[in-house]
Amino acid sequence: MAAVFLVTLYEYSPLFYIAVVFTCFIVTTGLVLGWFGWDVPVILRNSEETQFNTRVFKKQMRQVKNPFGLEITNPSTASITTGITLTTDCLEDSLLTCYWGCSVQKLYEALQKHFYCFRISTPRALEDALYSEYLYQEQYFIKKDSKEEIYCQLPRDTKIEDFGTVPRSRYPLVALLTLADEEDREIYDIISMVSVIHIPDKTYKLSCRILYQYLLLAQGQFHDLKQLFMSANNNSTPSSNSSPEEKSRERSLLEKAGLSESEAEPPEESSKDCVVCQNGTVNWVLLPCRHACLCDGCVRYFQQCPMCRQFVQESFTLCSQKEPEKDKPKAL
User: Fold this and answer.
1) Is Glycoprotein among this UniProt entry's keywords (predicted)?
2) Which residue among 24, 246, 322, 331 sits deepest, i.e. has the most Cβ atoms within 10 Å of its Cβ?
């Protein structure tokens, strides 16, 4: 039987060789063109098709309404001895509760309790979670839709002039914003906002700023609110006239506190033009660097951020194409 097969193969060998070569050609062509869906080098596609297929994952975002707003008024004048002025902007009647000298460890334990144990929707709930590990507390009623300036200061009889050297066991000030009406807590997903504020003193003279802001949700999650970095406007003026020595000293203070300069600096004026084409409107935020610098047309061509060259892991849009004129939602 084997001899018959060998004789037949010998008689038809030209056709056999042609079939083998043709099969190899078809398989090679399929691999190069990616017909089989395998992860092989794609060398015959045009650039647009290749960029589209290697586009980074689009992060699914959920738009929520934040009823709380808090910022520092005249941060250059704030200090432990002179106090601080806070400006609130809330969509509903709210309570602003300030905790001076709040324990760092107890605060983060309280955030974990919000996730695992009970919801921190009232000042009383936070005080229970902190086990009263703070030096002084003051509370103010905030009317809805009114930008009120609230002046906060430690009483003189406390005789506190600084909170020690870095790393510290206490934050100078923790501000809690909660909804005053219990019915409003059922309307909003965000039920409270915790702001950690640094205030300069004799020992640590880093300028006053908000270090962290946490949004606490009714479902038990909490999110660290981060600012987005827009491309710098060429026409914007410098934010400060500090000398190089002052900038160097402040940079070293930031490093001691465990903060990067990009996260702690106040936001600069920004341009809404795409940094690549200079024509389209910026609509894409790249993660994890949080640079908002690309329009809908240019985002497909980049796997690295064009501003910092960091690889892009995820991205999301500031507004959908159907609703380009609506207010931009905040990212959680």
Assistant:
1) no
2) 331
pTM for the model stands at 0.68
Q: Give the phi and the psi of residue 255 in degrees, each rounded to 5.
A: -65, -40
The Cβ of residue 103 has, within 10 Å, a number of other Cβ atoms equal to 20
274, pLDDT greater than 80: yes
Query: For residue 216, what are its two tokens?
Result: 């606490």
Ramachandran bin of 276, using left for φ above 0, alpha for ψ from -120 to 50, beta for the remaining angles: alpha
Give all strands (DSSP E) within the chain, no chain letters: 57-58, 70-73, 84-88, 94-103, 136-142, 148-152, 170-179, 190-198, 209-217, 222-224, 229-230, 284-287, 291-294, 314-317
* Residue keyed to tokens 């995820």: 314
Q: What is the tens place of the pLDDT at every residue in 186-202?
A: 889 999 999 999 999 88
CA atoms of 47 and 50, how far apart (whole Å): 5
Residue type, 219: Q
Strand, coil or helix: 228:
coil
For the chain, the first-to-last Cα distance in angstroms comes to 75
